[in-house]
């Protein structure tokens, strides 16, 4: 017998627990081998031994986990449909609908604006107050208290009336409709004025109806929502609601799936598997949903941070077929989900292009007021294009036209920054018909918001302009002559500061005196590389040693007054040989800058992003011949060492002699 089984036996004996150990198909006769001192205890608990077992599998190849099984009689287990008369299963046919008297009483309760008026209304003969009327009264008192009512209901008379209402409800609680019972649960968890016996009666009735599958999916969602919002809720009842909702996942359809995703925001890690169940049911009905339902599910998926490729793809198809039914609010939530998960496909892009273009045309015709929601949508579209490195002329031109039209009144600080940064970072200039007007509007907006823009965001904004050779002359003195004292701001903004400085030194035709920042004085690292880029860098360096005639390649060089990292710098003499720095100073003819380009350096269509386009432009002005090694071609298309060497040879042959 293994140590684990022996420990389990000793634990059972120590706690005087009724047990039966079955080891490698051993029979009950093994009980006779137990310690004689425990035989009397086992005899006294013989009836319990007939009901409870501990099944243990012992051996090397274990295929099943131990089971703990307990037998319950018909009156103990409430979900088997064999209760005694007192605990009979709930029959949904016994539900009583509200009669005219109850509805009239409920209308009178709704007209009460204070707890005092409710108690005055209850001063009627007792036989006229049914269980449903009493439930209505309890719910109305709870509602008034939750709305900030300060009236005391703990006085002797009011407490007696409240207890009488509770007793009236409990007497006929099994005939109350589900919605009324859920309202009573909400009262119990939100107001602390009820007797514990009443709360237990309500929870027991909820458990009976859960066991009889009386609650629908919508009822369970509402019940879980109200119980999850209070610490007074019964934890076991709440767990049973979650379990029962998971058992009814086949009943989830287009009518209640929105409620399911809303209630899943209250889910605990124990029941997070239900997200997969809900997502599975969503695939059976997504094409039947309307725009409002889609936007609600998208919002909840973002809050849950639940990524589902199937759902994202399916919603893209839905957008393509139903883009004409979307409004600004729905598109905002859908686009927010795709931006959150950094996902897009052709359906999403096509739908967004159609929607933004139509929206821009309506704005140009004066049919769309420049409200905040529309501007948020435009900034989200610009941010989506930036994150996905997507250059869509229809989207970006529409955003530029809208910004030009309503920039003074429509765009707040955050929305304006998001829109303006995206053009430079993508390296895209709007069409020639609106380019000058757009940049003029951008200058006016920046001047208007200048005192409100944080310094680091201002540097990033101005750097995005110089990416596309639009020099912010009116603002350069503010940033290049500023003293950056905050170390956190310096760390985030120094790269943009050096980019602006390099652009003015190399590209601005009539440059003025500037307070130059030395990169060493800024105390930042410009040679840092992440893991994937670092491995790419080392692989290329190892192959260069086999290619070059002389092993002289300067690694990780940064030209003065620029932040541009050159992975490998080659000094070429007049005979196209690689020379050292001293030889190059005497007989040098040219320099080659070998740049390693990752996928994030390009937008769609293999167009360089704004930052890297400026980097190449600056290095050319400094006299470098720029050679760009693409990660995809080096690591994926050319997998073998020979293929990689041939790829590098094709890039370097025009500039340098190779082996």
Automatic annotation (TrEMBL):
GO molecular function, one term: RNA binding
Alphabetical list of Pfam families matching this protein: FAST_1, RAP
SMART domains: RAP
Domain RAP: 594-651
Domain of life the protein comes from: Eukaryota
Annotated GO biological process: mitochondrial RNA processing; regulation of mitochondrial mRNA stability
Official protein name in the record: RAP domain-containing protein
InterPro entries noted in UniProt: FAST_Leu-rich, RAP
Originating species: Helobdella robusta
Gene Ontology CC annotation, any one: mitochondrial matrix
